[in-house]
Amino acid sequence: SAKSLACASLRGEYRLTGLYSGRVTYKKAGSSSTVIRYWPPDDRWLIDTRGLRESGECDAFAAAAAGPSMVAGLQWTLADPRLAQNSGRGVQSDVSAAGAPESSQSLDVVRDDEPLLMTVVAPAVVELSGREASKENVIMNGTYHLLGLHGGRPAYMKADGTRHAIRYWPKEDRWLVDFDGLQDRDICNAYAEAHGNSEHPADLGMVWSVWESSRGRHMLDRLVRALSSPHWVRISGRGADKENAAINGEYVLVGVVEGKAAYKKHGANHAIRYWPAEDRWIIDLERGFEGGDIANAYADAKGADNPGCPVLVWHVWHTVEGRHVVDNEVSSQALRYAPLELPKLMDLVGLSPGGQNASSNGSVAQGGG
Description:
Elements: H1 2-10, E1 12-20, E2 23-28, E3 35-39, E4 44-48, E5 60-63, E6 77-80, H2 81-87, H3 94-97, E7 108-110, E8 118-120, E9 125-129, E10 142-150, E11 153-157, E12 165-169, E13 174-178, E14 190-193, E15 208-212, E16 217-221, E17 225-227, E18 232-236, E19 249-257, E20 260-265, E21 271-275, E22 280-284, E23 297-300, E24 314-318, E25 323-326, E26 331-335, H4 342-349, H5 358-361, E27 364-367
Parallel strand pairs: 1-27, 8-27
Antiparallel strand pairs: 1-2, 2-3, 3-4, 4-5, 5-6, 6-7, 9-10, 9-17, 10-11, 11-12, 12-13, 13-14, 14-15, 15-16, 18-19, 18-26, 19-20, 20-21, 21-22, 22-23, 23-24, 24-25
């Protein structure tokens, strides 16, 4: 339908770009002009394919929520001037009446009982990790991609064809891991209490309980965590002829240590972990996750929630000097799975707009945050 096509053109990831009209603005990734901007005369947020401009005209609008940058949860109404023009009707909408420039062309407003487009501030990819290989339901570990909305919140699904999903269950305010996909039921392989304030499942404060057949119930597993951290971190730049050159390489996300993402190099005990006592990211080539404050290299975190932050300054141990010395050539890089476009993801997991669970797919205008 025309409404679905309009939603498809507006759906996508919007990244924070700066300020306009006193509030934050977002630009759609891959677009040169489509933005989310605030329009003060009507106290509204607008999605506008024609960019930042002093006008109330837009492609979709939503009433402003509390707070100067509150875009999460906004439910959008489509505004398409072509509808009035094509149909010959002169329906005067509240958009043009509320402060848009005077025009002989009125707007029709596309309205539905359920919103076709909603803004969510959520990661495009969620990493679920920590379930031990020896335990039941270990296949819950993996990478989940944002698929749309389910239960009024972001829903995620693996892109490997398994249909494994992370979805919200509003009746019990829980996030569920469901191997059967996006279902409208409370049966699941694992769950975590949302406590009313988790807008997406990548919340390190949530604790997961996983089904164990031998016990006949879900059992708490404090090692399982859902994160928005990068899947890999690459350390590079340490000269091959220098001490501790082995810090170079790629480290893969393996779980959580001291409340932060922890990484390990494949085939070695080399690890990157967080040390809260000194607010540092530590590279340990000897004892991995058990080395305490001993480090072959470290970087002061200063708020960085993962070690792939490119602005981190790395200090590397120098035996001759008996201390860690700054090496400005060493850098860290976050490596993530690329977000999948919705049609591609739906094709991979076997969903279609007209098929089973189609009503759960939703459309997402994803706000950066």
